[in-house]
Design brief:
By secondary structure, the protein is α/β, with parallel strands linked by helices. It has 5 helices and 8 strands; from the N terminus they run βββαββαβαβαβα. The protein has a single domain (about 15-140), classed as Rossmann fold (3-Layer(aba) Sandwich), CATH 3.40.50.720. It has a 6-stranded parallel beta sheet with strand order 5-4-3-6-7-8, with helices on both faces. It has a two-stranded antiparallel sheet with strand order 1-2. α1 links the parallel β3 and β4 (about 40-45).
Length: about 140
C-alpha cells in the first residue's frame, strides 16, 4: 500500500498532505475527518446525517451510504485515501469495494468491528483497523 507524505508540525503533531474521503455516518467518521483536516489533508466527509458544526476545512456530503448511486455521485475522485468507518462490517466491506472501483484511491483504510471478518477485508486488498484490537491496546497501555 502507498504511504502518504507525512511531515511534522512545529507543535509536534503530524501533518498529512493528501486529499481524503471519509465515509461513515457515525461520531468516529466525523472525528477522523476533523483530525485529518486539522493535520492538513483536504477532506470530504460522507454520511447520512447532517453534521451539526462541520469544521471549515471539511466538505460534507449528506447521502445515504447504503445508496451506491448517491455515494458514487460524491465527487471524491481526487481522494488518494478513502477511510471507511461505519458501524456494520458488511456495509464497510461494500463501501470499500465501491471506493476501489469508483474512486480508485491509492489507499483504502477500513474499520473492522469483528476480528473474525478481517480476512474478507484483507482479500479486498485494503488496510484494516480492527476496533477490538485497537481498544484493547489503548486500555492496556493506560493501565
Amino acid at each position: 500500500m502507498a504511504k502518504h507524505q507525512i511531515s511534522g508540525n512545529s507543535d509536534g503533531t503530524a501533518s498529512v498532505e493528501t486529499p481524503a474521503c471519509v465515509i461513515g455516518d457515525c461520531h468516529v467518521g466525523q472525528a477522523v475527518a476533523t483530525r485529518l483536516a486539522a493535520s492538513g489533508a483536504t477532506v470530504t466527509f460522507v454520511g447520512a446525517s447532517p453534521v451539526a458544526d462541520p469544521p471549515p476545512d471539511v466538505t460534507t456530503k449528506e447521502v445515504d451510504e447504503l445508496d451506491s448511486d448517491a455515494v458514487v455521485a460524491v465527487d471524491a475522485d481526487e481522494a488518494d485515501v478513502v477511510v471507511v468507518v461505519g458501524t456494520a462490517d458488511s456495509t464497510n466491506l461494500l463501501l470499500a469495494q465501491l471506493a476501489r472501483v469508483e474512486y480508485e484511491p491509492e489507499t483504502i483504510v477500513v474499520l473492522v468491528n469483528d476480528p473474525g471478518r478481517v480476512r474478507a477485508f484483507e482479500d479486498l486488498g485494503v488496510e484494516t483497523i480492527v476496533l477490538p484490537d485497537v481498544l484493547a491496546a489503548v486500555v492496556t497501555e493506560q493501565l
